[in-house]
Amino acid sequence: MLAPNTEVQEMVIGLGNVGEEEVQSDYGISDELQSCSSTDEEDIRRRPTYVEFNDETDMKDPHFRIGMKFRSFKQFREAVRNYGIKNICVMKLRPNNSKRCKAFCKKGCPFYLLDSPMATDRNTIQIKSGCLKHECTKDHKNRHVSAQWIAHNYLEQFRANPSWKAAGIIQAVRSNQCVDISRLTAWRAKAIATRLLEGDEEDQMKRLYDYRLELLETHPGSTIMFRCIIGMFQAMYVCLSPLRAGFLAGCRRIISLDGCFLKSFYGRQLLAAVGIDANDCIYPIA
């Protein structure tokens, strides 16, 4: 009986180790022979490809993978928050800076994601490591469901129903996200949605002079005046030339004053000079 050759055994063991390293690499096992002088096309083909996160298709129901790429840390953080809302769990972000961001479950389960810039492209963020398994219970008081999030995700409902009550908002969030919110959060969400739909009053006030120029360009001969005290807006007078000409041409020579209170942030009153046309209907003049 021949004695085993130790050199042959060492060679076999060495080859076995090489095979194990190839399984753990990004390239996997390939049966093709690679030449020493490989072309750029072969390098591109052998380079691993990673999934890129898409806001339009992935943001409402995020599914993370190791190696997934993001446009920025902001996009990654938003995806983590939406993931927590969808899976009814509270996520924490720590550390959270310009070099790396780690997301993990609040209740201490193994789930975590470690995100940092890619070595080849510092503007692209990539999930470098993580554990995608949850071992915690659902958390029905989720701080990720904030007033800002509700306003943006239920914006069309607020548009269709401007008088949506707080009780209805609470019930909608409880049914869709399985999360309980307070009445204060519901009222804040409605206020934010109203501001998004109607615009910010302060920004609108800054554009009054642009509005005046637009009216004078489209309605020549109109009278538009402002009253300001030390640069602060006090009042505005508008009389469009077509309305003035229509009153003089076909309305009774009676002018009345109508008014209402403005239920806006600044309040005040809106006064209108009105007449009566040939059909006994109110005709606005100024």
Automatic annotation (TrEMBL):
UniProt superkingdom: Eukaryota
Species of origin: Dioscorea cayennensis subsp. rotundata
Gene expressing this chain: LOC120252589
Limits of the Transposase MuDR plant domain: 64-112
PANTHER family from the UniProt entry: MUTATOR TRANSPOSASE MUDRA PROTEIN (PTHR31973:SF187), POLYPROTEIN, PUTATIVE-RELATED (PTHR31973)
InterPro entries: Transposase_MuDR
Protein name: Uncharacterized protein LOC120252589
